[in-house]
Amino acid sequence: MAQVNRDAEGLRSPGPGTPPVAVAPRVSLPGAALERARLALVRGEPSEAAKGERQRLYRFAALLILVFAYRDFAVPWPGLLRPLIVRLVWCAALLGCGELLRRPGPVSYRAAVRIAGVASAICCGYLGICVGGTRGFITLWLPALPLAALVIAQEEWVGIVLTGLAVHVMLLVTCAGEGLPLAAVAGWQANTAASSLLAYFASREYGRRMADEHDALVRLGDSEQRRSRSERLATVGRLAGGVAHEINNPLTFMKANLELLVEDLTGPRTLADAETREMLDEVQGGVERIRRIVADLRVFAREEAADAVESCDVRAAADESLRLAGVRMKSHVVVELMVPPGCPAARITPRKLSHVLVNLLLNASDALEGRADGKVWVRVTEERGGVRVSVADNGPGFPADVLQHAFEPFVTSKEPGKGMGLGLAVSREYVDQVGGSITAKNRAEGGAEVAFWLRPA
Ligand SMILES: Nc1ncnc2c1ncn2[C@@H]1O[C@H](COP(=O)(O)OP(=O)(O)OP(=O)(O)O)[C@@H](O)[C@H]1O
Ligand SMILES: [Mg+2]
Prior knowledge:
There is one protein chain. The protein is an alpha+beta fold and 457 residues long. It has 2 domains: 33-223, no CATH class; 308-457, Histidine kinase-like ATPase, C-terminal domain (Heat Shock Protein 90). The protein has 13 helices and 5 strands. The chain has helices at 32-42, 48-74, 81-102, 106-130, 137-141, 145-153, 157-178, 182-266, 273-301, 314-329, 350-367, 400-403, 423-433, and strands at residues 333-338, 374-383, 386-393, 437-442, 448-454. It has a 5-stranded mixed sheet with strand order 1-2-3-5-4, covered by helices on one side. Helix 1 packs across helix 8, helix 6 (145-153) packs parallel to helix 8 and helix 11 (350-367) packs antiparallel against helix 13 (423-433). The radius of gyration is 35 Å and the shape is elongated. Bound molecules: adenosine-5'-triphosphate and magnesium ion.
């Protein structure tokens, strides 16, 4: 009876007479959310959630300003009009910047935080002048504005520096208007410089952390791409033997036909026109067969854009997978494909679906090796509004100890060099990524069955 061997490194350690089975912890691969976060970071933007949070802060600040405007309105005082107008302008500027920073693209995001910082410094400074100047409570808060900008802009240090500079200018204007002595002006500027420097360094530190996180995500994304590419190439490699055989067959009869045709053309003519036509048709058919195999292999090995449309004609993907896997299965397995008419499109990219199906078909083919009566049933049915695909065979079924770990990476009962134990793990990853589910079982009547369900496109 086969054993699942767990050694320290999760490597193969077969016991005497035990098929080699290895178990490693499941590797969690990045999904669509991670990919979106990675793309946002690559473009130099915070995530949508962070943008939403910052927009809420702008709105909250605008609401506070409105509350003060209402208080001014409710308890009127002489010279009220100008501060009231400034408050309304400030409020509108913050709301507008909140909308601007939700627009896609790093340019509008940066513009929004810079405009909001500078507009706040100007409006707040002007309000300070209107209500008491350096003796009023508004001017008292002005030097703290760069720190408030830090809360919202965080990694956008240029916005923070611009806010600090605008505060310096507004304080100079205020002090000059009051004719304050130089020492008092220097005191106000020193306060502002201290808070600006603090905000600037905190922002640079935050930016550095973001850059580290960005690098880690880019590396993770790259290694995921490399892993997916090498797994696909490994599958192509596994198909290679069959492909060579499949191409060699038509090549042999094409060569023989062409030699006969050349002989007939150059020597005495022995072939009737109908025979010549038939031989040329055969050559044409052979060329077409080879063209299809090469075209399928190219589709299979091709890169796919991260945002490729997730909609797939299941029948077409199943036909393509059968042609691909068929080059290895044909000699010993009979495959039966059942797809209901009008089967809905599934939410997955065609390449991923083909990859999953080829993996399952190759597993069935391996399980049926050496059997004269090998059969594989590929059944597609509509289920819960989506599509269910099952691949069943009449082989020996999953070894009992493999079945419960079958979808974990590097679990295999095959000899080294024959199987890596990645086919089912990758298949589950692809199905999970699009919100589907996949299961494996041994059939009561004998043989294995792997079935997966996909959402409708
Ligand atoms: N149709 C099947 N019948 C019997 N056993 C199966 C079947 N499909 C999978 N298995 C078992 O599950 C194990 C894991 O399959 P999986 O496709 O993940 O890896 P593999 O086929 O061993 O290697 P790889 O796919 O990386 O070449 C196989 O080694 C085999 O023991
Ligand atoms: Mg496999």
